[in-house]
Amino acid sequence: MINRRRxxxxxxxxxxxxxxxxxxxxxxxxxxxxxxxxxxxxxxxxLPALGMGTSRTxxxxxDADSLARLAxxxxxxxxxxxxxxxxxxxxxxxxxxxxxxxxxxxxxxKLFAATKVWTTGREQGIAQMEASARRMNVQTFDLIAVHNLxxxxxxxxxxxxxxxxxKVRYIGITTSHGRDHDQFLDVMxxxxxxxxxxxxxxxxxxxxxxxxxxxxxxxxxxxINRPYQRGAxxxxxxxxxxPAIAAELDCSSWGQFFLKFILGHAAVTCIIxxxxxARHMADNMQANFGRVPDAAQRAEMLRVFDSL
Length: 308
Hints:
By secondary structure, this protein is α/β, with parallel strands linked by helices. 45% of the residues lie in helices and 14% in strands. It has helices at 4-20, 25-30, 64-79, 94-104, 122-136, 152-165, 181-190, 211-218, 232-237, 245-248, 254-263, 278-286, 295-307; strands at 37-39, 46-48, 52-53, 84-86, 112-117, 141-146, 168-174, 195-199, 221-225, 270-271. The protein has an 8-stranded parallel β-sheet. Strands 1-2 form a two-stranded antiparallel ribbon. α1 (4-20) packs across α3, α1 (4-20) crosses α4 (94-104) and α4 (94-104) packs parallel to α5. The longest helix is centred in the first third of the chain and has 17 residues, at 4-20. The protein is globular.
C-alpha cells in the first residue's frame, strides 16, 4: 500500500512534469494529423486506436523514482489523447501503480479502464475484481475480461450479471500466449462478448486465420497484445532504414510502422503496447494519428519486413 508521503512525492513529480510541458510532445509531433479511432461494435462507442498495456512495465515497487517514471509515461499517453489502459491481477503490482499515479493527478483525464479476472471460483472472482477496482482507483470498470479463459464459465456468468446491473460496461475474454485458440473461438461463437484480446503482429499473424475474421463477423471488438512480439520485431529491423512506404503512412519509426500494419486490419479495434519509458510511449502514440495502410500497402509492408 502506498503511504501518504509517497503520494505527496508522486504528486510533486507529476506537477513538475506537467510544468515542463513534456507531456505535450507527442501531441505537438502529430501536427494536423487526424486521430485514429475505432468503434466498439456492440455499442458504437469510439476509442482511440492506441491504448496501453501494463504487463511487466508497471509491475514496480512504490518508490518515488518508479512512481515518477510511470507518471511521465501516463502523462505522455494522455497528452496524445490515449484513454484505454489495460491491466490484470496477473501483472503483479501493475494495477496498484496505475491507481497510485491516477490518484496523484490533480485532474485525472478521461479513462477507459480495463482489467481481467484471473482466479477460480465465483466468490474468489468477485473478490478479485473488487480488489482490482480499489487498486486501480476505478469506480466502474469499462471492461473486465476473463484472463486466459481461467474458469471462464463461472466468471462470464458473473460478468453478464454485472453488466446488466451496471457494475461493468463491457465484458470479454483474453489469451496472452496464442494458446487454446479452439476453445477461445468456441466461446466467441457462443457467448455475448463485447471484447476479445489476443496477440497479433507482423511476425505472428495466426490471428488472421480465424480470430480476426470471427470477431468481425460476430461484431466483437478486438484488443491486440504483444504488437512487437516482446521486442523481437525490433531485433529484425535493427540497423535497417525505414522503407519509403513508411512516409506514406506518417510513420517516423519502426515501432510506428509495426503498429500501423496492425491497424490496417479492419477487425482491429485497439492495440495495447506496454512500456515504462516516456520516450517510447511518445513514439508509440504517434501511430495514433495519420494514415492507415490499405491492403496493397500492407502487402508492401510485409514484403519489406519479410525481406530483412
